[in-house]
Amino acid sequence: MIVLLIVDMQCGMVSNGVSPTERDVIAARIHGVAESVRAVGGRVVFIRHEGPAGDSYAPGNADWEFVPSLTPLADDHVVAKTTCDAFYDTTLNHLLTAWGVDELIICGWATDFCVDTTVRAAVSHNYSVTVVSDGHTAADRPHLSAVRIVEHHNAVWTDLLTPGRAIRVAAANALAEELGRIG
Known about the structure:
Helices cover 39% and strands 21% of the residues. It has 183 residues and is of the alpha/beta class.
């Protein structure tokens, strides 16, 4: 089974250094992949960063909410996390194991933190991983622009030495087309 992990596409995260236009473009790509995954009987899991009481990412706060164009459907699942790693001290691996998942597609926010950490953790849990090359982003950092961060991570992931299968990096439209042939 294929599962799409949508990492931290929350109002507070993506408003931190990403224009509304870029947010909407990335969200539309992710939405397209999600629809394709659902069409072939796959599952969609939204990963949500949760902060403690008083934090802007505490449950119920505006920053904690998912961006309006990417909200979970009734059959989707939401996994809460408190670190960059969506597997660490969460229900994610248990859920994936119960479903018999062997392939993950990963996208979301922020390329250089939560997406990268989750990609590497997924590989260490022996999942086949595909990253949506144009479905993740970050804010500009003092030392590197968001565009360069995305380019860098897409290149690193394709060359990363892994214990099993290599990490695949593919564009959203190519993934949707590929999944359409499966369905």
